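Can you give me the bound-state structure? Components:
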Amino acid sequence: MNNLKDTPCGTTVTVRKVGGEGATRRRIMDMGITRGAEVFVRKVAPLGDPIEVTVRGYELSLRKADAVYILVE
Amino acid sequence: MSIRLALAGNPNCGKTTMFNELTGAAQYVGNWPGVTVEKKEGRCRADKTVLITDLPGIYSLSPYTLEEVVTRDFLVNEQPDAVINLVDASNIERNLYLTTQLLEMGLPVVVALNMMDIVAKRGDVIDTAQLSARLGVPVVETTALKGKGVRELVETAKQAAQDGSVPQVHRFEACIENALTQIECMIRDVTEPAQRRWFAVKLFERDEKVLARFRFGADAREKLETLVAAVEETLDDDAESIITDARYQYIAQVVKPCVQKKQTGMTLSDRIDHIVTNRFLALPIFALVMFLVYYVSVTTVGTVLTDWANDGVFGEGWHLAGYGAGAYEDAAAAYEDDVTRRDAWLEAAETAGLDVSALTEQLAAEEPDAAAAAQAGAVLAADPAAAAVVGTAVFEDEKTGAVVTEPVSLSVFERTLAAEAPDPADFGIWVPGIPVLLGNALAGLGIADWLYSLIMDGIVAGVGAVLGFVPQILVLFFFLAILEDCGYMARVAFIMDRVFRKFGLSGKSFIPMLIGTGCGVPGIMASRTIEQERDRRMTIVTTTFIPCSAKLPIIALFAGALFDNAGWVAFSAYVIGVLAIVLSGIMLKKFRAFAGEPAPFVMELPAYHVPTAGNVLRSMWERGSSFIKKAGTVILLSSVVLWFLLSYGWENGAFGAVSEINNSVLAAIGNAVAPLFAPLGWGTWENAVATVTGLIAKENVVATFGQTLGFAEVAEDGAEIWSLLASSFTQVTAFSFMCFNLLCAPCFAAMGAIKREMNNAKWTVFAIGYMCVFAYGIALMVNQFGGLVTGELSFGLGTVAALAVLALMLYLLLRKPSVSRNGVEAHRMSVQANS
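Here's the bound-state model for the whole set.
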C-alpha cells in the first residue's frame, strides 16, 4: 500500500487508513481525509513541502511528514 | 425575556460577516482560518431582545484545539437557546461535518446555508427543503455578504429557540449504537437527557476532557474500555476513526440527493492558483508581492506618513497638502548657502588678523540678538583691513558630490549678514505641529516650568511616539487585510513553511520580519496573522532582532567612529539579526512551552476572491485602534517615567530639575549599573545611559552620546563625536556595544506592541527578558573572544564566563528535544499503519 506523500502530482487516490496520532491525526480526519475519501494530489509547494490536495471539493495543504501516515491506493 | 443565540461554523464560511450583518457591530473579517479567537457578543439589529454570541471558527468539536474546547464548553455549559450553524454551501460536505456534531448537543439548531451566490454562480443546485428534511432541522439560504436571508434566519432561529425542539440525531451502525446506548445508561444519573447522546459519543471516542469530567471509578472505566474495544475489534479501526468515518459517510448520503453539482473545468480561483503557486513562478511572484508591500508600507508611503506624523504633526508643523513646501525648501537652501559664505569670510578674516570674536559670539549665542549681531558686523566691516579679505566658500552638490568653490568678498559678506532664516509659516499654508500649538498655549497660561516640561517633553513626546507610528501601521494593516481577505496569506504560509518551520516559526513569520526591517512595531503587529499561538509567540520574540531603521544611526555612529565607515559593519548587523532569529528559534523550540502540542499544519487553502472594501477598512481600523489603546498606555507611561529620570537629579547639592544630563537620576542609575556591562567591555555610566535612552527610541543612543560628551546636538550619524568615541571604545568593545543595543529590549513602542500581541504579562516579560539575556550573551562573547584575539584582554574570569555562555548555547542548539510520550505513541501508530 502507498502513502499520500509518495503519490505523484495529478493523481487521484482513495484513502485506506489514517495513521499517526493525537491532534494531527484527528485534524486530518476532521478535514475530511477519512477511509474511502477520494484525494487528488494537486501540487507540491515550490520548496518541496508541503503538498496541496483536493478533498471533498476543497483545497487542503499538509506537510509530507504528516502525509506519510495517510495510506492510499 | 431575551433569547440567546450562538453562531457556530467553520473558518472561512463568512461567519464574521454574518455576525456583523446580524448585530451591526464592527468586527474584523479575514480569509485566514482561525481569526476569531475570542468570544464576541452583540444584540441583534432587527430585534434587541436577541443576544448573539459569535463562537470561534472551528472544523470540529475535538478536544485538541483551544477554539474547539471553548466552543463546546460554551455549548454544553451555557446552553444557548438555539445555535445558528453557518454552513458554506460551496463547500458543503466538510461544513456539514461540524453540523453532525452540533446536532448531538441537545440544542435547537438552525442551519444557515451561506454563500448561496457562489453556488448559483457555479451552476450548482441545492435542494434546501430536502436537505432540511434529511437533517431534521430548519435550513435557511443566506448570502451574508449581501445581507440576503438574514432577516428570515433571525426569525427561524427565534422560532426554534421558542419551540425548544431538539433535533433528531442520525443513527450510527448497529454495533456502535449498541455501545452508545450502554454508555448512555452508565451516565444516566449525572447528565441531562438532551446532552446524554453527545457525552456518550465523546466517551466512545475516548475524549480525555469528557472522561475527566465524569471522574469514573476503575470499574466504570474498565467497562467503558471493554465496550469501545469490542466495537473497535468488530470494525477493525480505532474509535475516533470509526466515528469520523461514520459522520462523513452519513453526510455523503445526505448530500447526494440534495446537491446537483454542475461539472465544470477549472474555476477562476483554480486558474489564479495555478499561476500564483506554480512551481517556478511562485517564488518570483511571492518576492514581488512582498517587495510591493515592503516598498509601499515601509519605504515610500510609510516613510512619508511617518515623517509627516513625527516631524509635522508632532514636530514643528507642516505645509498643508505640501503647498509652499518647495518654495520654503528653496529659501532654506539659499539661506544655508549664505551662512556658508558668511562663515567662509569670517574664517578668512580671522586668518588675516581681524578680531571676529564679537560677531561669532553673537552668532553662536543660543538666543541670538539680531541688533547686536548687526552692530558687531558693521564694526567688523568698517575695519580698513576688511576690504582686502576674500573668503572661499565651498559647496558640495549632495547628489553628484561635485565641489564648487566661490570667492566671498566684503560686500557679499555684508549682504549675508542681513540674510534671515526663512520661517516656514511664510510659505504656502503652514499648519503648526501640536507641540508648537500646545507649547504656545501653555506658555500663555504661565504654568510652572516643571509642569510645562512634563507636558511637553514627557507626555506630548510620549503620545507623539505612539501616534507617530499609526499612519504607517494603518498602511501596513491595509495591505495585510487585502492579502488575508483575497486568500494569498494562506499561500504565503504554503510557500514559506518549509524554511521557517525548521526554526520553530511559521511560514507566515516572513512578513513580520520583512516589515521589521523598517520598523519593529508594525512588524510585531503583523504577527497577528499567524494562527498557531506557539508560532506567533516565537515570531514576536524574534522579530525585533532584525535591525529596524531606527537602529541604523547606531550602526552608522560606530561604523564611522571606529571602523572607517566600512560597509561590512552594517551588513554584519543584518547577518547578526538573522542569525539571532535562527539560533533563538532552534534553541527555544526545544523548550516545552514552545514544543508542547505542536500545532498541526493541516491548513485549508481558501478559494481566492476579490477583497471587499468594507472588510479591509474595518480590519485596518480595528487593528490600528487596538495598537493605540493597548500599546499606547505602556509607551506613554514609560516615556513619562524616563522623562522624570532624565530631567531630575541632584544639582548644586539639591534635588530638582537638572540642566546637565550628567546630574540626572538616570546618570546615577547609569553609574550603579555600569559594572554590569564591564564584562562586555563598555562599563561606563555614559554607555549605560545611552543604552537606557535607546529604549525611548533607538536613534536616541546617538543623541545621548552627544549630550554626555558635551554636545548640545549632533547629526544623525553623530559625526561630531566620532573622534571622542574612538578614544573611549576599541573596535571590539564598539562591536560588543553595537550587538547589545541591536539585540536587547527594543524601544517602548515595540515593547508596547509585544504586550499587545502576547496579551499575557508573563509572556511579555519572557520575551523582553530573553532578548536582553541573549543580547548580553552575544555581546559578552564578542568582547571576550574578540579581546583575546586582538590582545586587548587576557584570559580571565570574563573568558571563562564567555566560554560558559558558548557551551550553554551549543548545548541548547544541539540537544535533542524532550521526546514526549505522544511522540513514541506516534511512532508506534505509524509502524502499525505501515504494516
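A couple of observations. The longest strand of chain B covers residues 3-9. Residues 28-36, 819-835 of chain B have pLDDT under 50 and may be disordered.
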